[in-house]
Amino acid sequence: MSEPSTSTPQTGVNPPTQDYSRGESPDRSLLSAVTTLSDLRALLPILNSDRAVFAAAGVIAHAACSGQFDNEELTVVVTDLCADLLHLADALGIDHAELAADSQAYYLDELGR
After folding, report:
1. pLDDT value at 97 more than 60
2. Rounded CA separation 13/95 (Å)
3. 9-35 burial by CB neighbour count: b if 16+ within 10 A, else e?
């Protein structure tokens, strides 16, 4: 039986040397290099202590379900997910303005503002 690979997938993101699984916040500059789903997948283990990991997992799952590819621009994938969430809000009878206001309030609260 062969040993599991510890190599990092080839992406535009260089993995950090710190272990963020202990609750430290990741360097936000890592996120600035993320432009594709492959890049985002490579960062998931790094982001595991950050709320962004929940959203990243959702983006990846949505992309898989909708047939988007790893080389798809991340802004396109995230925008498509947001649009589909608005379709879901319509189906559930949730007001878009209220959803946006509540989301912004949650976000600011999580930042401690």
Report:
1. yes
2. 38
3. eebebeeeeeebeeeeebeeebbeebb
Report DSSP letters for the chain, one per residue.
-PPPP-PPP--S-PPPSS-GGGSPPPPHHHHHT--BHHHHHHHTTTTTTSTHHHHHHHHHHHHHHHT--TTSBHHHHHHHHHHHHHHHHHHHT--HHHHHHHHHHHHHHHTT-
Output the six-digit token pair for 39: 């890049």
Higher pLDDT, 45 or 88: 88
Q: What's the CA gap between 101 and 31, in Å, rounded?
A: 25
Contact 46, 30 (CB under 8 A): yes
Amino acid at 1: M
What tokens were used for 112?
Answer: 């401690």
